[in-house]
Amino acid sequence: MRKTTFLLPILVIAVAGLLSSIFIVDEREKALVLQFGRVVAVKEDPGLAFKIPLIQEVVRYDDRILSRDVEPLEVTPLDDRRLVVDAFARYRITDVNQFRQAVGVGGIATAENRLDSILRAETREVLGSVSSKDILSSDRAALMLRIRNAAIAEARALGIDIIDVRLKATDLPTQNLEATFERMRAEREREATDERARGNEAAQRVRAQADRTVVELVSEAQREAEIIRGEADALRNNIFAEAFGKDEEFFEFYRSLTAYQRALQGSNSSMVMSPDSDFFNYLRSPDGTPSQPRQ
């Protein structure tokens, strides 16, 4: 009985010591085994690992790709047009031993603060070497690559590999928005005025061309009409001449009837002349033959 009572606490202590010497490394992390603050082992492969209880401790770090949003910063491009840039970076801890030595017990928080300083400095340097048009254009991917490449070397001193740097937003400072808006509006109004002037000029050319075409068409039509009318008059005169040559008496009769028709038009026409006027030669004749003029 005494032996069992004595062995039981020893067994419990042994089991507790065994359990405290075992730890599991997850596939999403890396681990450091520290002894009195000094790194004695690096565990990067997932699975079971061992440490000395009470003397050694385990520090775990995320092995996944991490994201860090950089606080918005103001940059001044070559054209002195200030911009507020909002960026973020994706990074990964590649050397946990160097990472521990660089940041100490501060861990991820300290590393990200130092990473912010690196990214802000490189962003100001790269964006300060180009114009604001380059920053605001769709071709700014090259600028982001330059920022990343410039920050990689400094980040490696922290045991970090920067995978990507992106500019989320590029805006004007609040105090410059109104002035910029007025400048943009004035520029658009100037462009609109130029467009209207060019449109009016084109419209004037079209109208002038149309008026010229109308005059040319009308003149040509009138010329052709005069030619046709002259030809018709000539043909009519020829017909009259031929008719007069074939039957002079009938032609004179036809001309008299035409004169009567034209002279006696309308319901209130009046004509005053002598009854024995030659105008009524055919009206006085009972058989339609012209009367002989009086001697």
What order do the helices and strands come in, and which of them pair?
Blueprint: H1 2-20, E1 22-25, E2 29-35, E3 38-43, E4 47-50, E5 56-62, E6 66-75, E7 83-93, H2 96-103, H3 107-127, H4 132-136, H5 141-156, E8 160-171, H6 174-246, H7 248-263, H8 281-284
Q: Overview of this structure, please?
A:
This protein has helices at 2-20, 96-103, 107-127, 132-136, 141-156, 174-246, 248-263, 281-284; strands spanning 22-25, 29-35, 38-43, 47-50, 56-62, 66-75, 83-93, 160-171. Among the domains are: 2-62, no CATH class; 66-171, Tetrahydropterin Synthase, Chain A, CATH 3.30.479; 247-263 and 274-295, no CATH class. The protein is of the alpha+beta class and 295 residues long. The model has no long low-confidence stretch (mean pLDDT 80). The protein is rod-shaped and about 175 Å long. The protein contains 8 helices and 8 strands, in the order H-E-E-E-E-E-E-E-H-H-H-H-E-H-H-H. A 3-stranded antiparallel sheet has the order 3-2-5, with no helix packed on it. The chain has a 3-stranded antiparallel sheet with strand order 6-7-8. It is found in: Membrane. HflC and HflK could regulate a protease.
